[in-house]
Write a structure and sequence with these properties.
Helix content is 10%, strand content 48%. It has 419 residues and is mainly beta. The chain has one domain: Porin. The protein has a 19-stranded antiparallel β-sheet that branches. It starts with a helix and ends with a strand.
Length: 419
């Protein structure tokens, strides 16, 4: 019943938000717009026998699992319904948006995407609420659309592209003739996982400490556009502190990342690219459940011998496209390289881990409201970083476990209705 109450609550909120539209006679010139996107995925997911075995474990008989292919049809988690309001003098506005989605077993959900307001004066703009920002925006993300609800895959997030996420924040922007500067103070995203102290490997050494944040996450960015070229270099940092840690042990973790996303368009050709480098990326900017990587190591710090060893990560992605009228074929590649000098000490086979992804698609805009995108994508999970599986190191027939963690294919069609 709770899901139906959630849906009903979302509808009630949207109806309430319509009040400005009904009261335009009292506020001439103000505008109110209902917006939405209905996004349905139809496709297939194929997992290699290595990936199936590593993610789900050996069979009851101690053997490897077979590869398998499964069909999925669902309302993508990035479908939404929302509304925007702007004052008559264009100085003030608000935006609220709810995600609507369905998965297997009729798992319908309604989730908050945006809820913020803004105020402009001259070249300055103040934004407050639940939103994403200039830093880590999606403007340069590869256009991979298939598999969000079924496989946790979209836009190569965690596969080479870094996104800031939507968080409660207060943001200031200043626009000049040469670009836009932005600084945001946001709720640290690491708050979502420190409650169980799962932020660190080897957390038994923390004891009964309490996690807290001395200051908000700070996002800095500068947007620059020159003709068909656009870039938004940025930097973000946050800190998690632990109260009650034993004397002589590290009592804080600092997460940071620097990124350079950019796009370039000329005569129908388009390039989107991003490169980023930082530490403990999955504490703040992972965006999707760390469970989507199975038993592979995450970019989170390792607490070993009373000291914190930060996990460094380098990521990059690139998309090439060519637009012909309303058809845009595109290809994209993403790569992630993570390392931690203590991984071997906590049971992994290596201190370095790489994964990569490749996709191709055709974006076909039937009209301004309806888009169809056939897509095929390949995700390679890299080498298996765990030395055992189901607490065994060899199969029942005596053969060794594969060093390959496995791979995954996604292929199908995304249907998007936008209004």
């Amino acid at each position: 019943m709770r899901k139906y109450f959630a849906i009903l609550a979302a509808v009630v909120v949207l109806v309430a938000m319509s009040a400005p539209a009904w009261a335009q006679a009292e506020a001439p010139g103000s505008s109110f717009t209902v917006i939405g996107r209905l996004w349905t995925d139809f496709g297939y997911q194929h997992k290699s026998e290595e990936l199936a075995t590593n993610q789900y474990g050996l069979t009851m008989k101690g053997k490897k699992r077979d590869s398998y292919t499964t069909n999925f049809v669902n309302v993508n988690a990035n479908s939404y319904w929302g509304a925007k309001w702007t004052s008559g003098d264009k100085s003030t506005g608000a935006h609220a948006e709810f995600a609507i989605l369905s998965k297997e077993s009729q798992n319908e959900q309604v989730l908050l995407r945006y809820a913020y307001g803004w105020w402009k004066m001259g070249n300055c703009k103040l934004t407050a609420g639940h939103t994403d920002g200039v830093f880590g925006s999606l403007f340069a993300a590869p256009g991979s659309l298939l598999g969000t609800s079924n496989s946790g895959k979209i836009l190569f997030l965690r596969w080479g592209y870094l996104y800031s996420g939507r968080l409660p924040q207060v943001r200031f922007e200043y626009t000049s003739p040469v670009g836009l500067f932005s600084i945001a103070l946001a709720q640290a995203d690491a708050e979502q996982i420190v409650g169980t102290e799962s932020l660190l490997y080897g957390t038994s050494q923390i004891g009964s400490s309490q996690a807290y944040f001395s200051w908000p996450r700070v996002d800095l960015a500068y947007a620059l556009r020159l003709g068909g070229f656009m870039a938004i270099p940025g930097f973000s940092v946050s800190q998690v502190r632990y109260d009650g840690v034993s004397s002589g042990r590290d009592d804080s973790v600092i997460n940071w990342v620097a990124q350079l996303p950019m796009t370039y368009e000329i005569a129908g050709f388009g390039v989107k690219a991003q490169i980023y480098y930082g530490q403990n990326i999955d504490c703040e900017w992972g965006q999707t459940s760390t469970g989507t990587l199975g038993g592979q190591p995450q970019a989170i710090p390792v607490w070993f011998g009373g000291k914190v060893e930060d996990t460094k990560q380098l990521g990059a992605s690139i998309e090439l496209s060519y637009t012909i009228d309303n058809i845009k074929p595109l290809i994209a590649f993403g790569y992630v390289d993570s390392s931690n000098d203590n991984w071997k000490k906590v049971g992994y086979t290596d201190d370095n881990y790489q994964r990569w992804a490749l996709m191709g698609a055709v974006d076909y805009k039937i009209n301004q409201y309806f888009t169809v995108q056939p897509e095929v994508a390949y995700y390679n999970y890299g080498d298996r970083m765990s030395s055992t599986l189901n607490n065994v190191s060899r199969l029942v027939n005596g053969s060794s476990l594969s060093n390959d963690y496995g791979s995954e294919w996604l292929f199908g069609v995304a249907f998007l209705f936008v209004f």
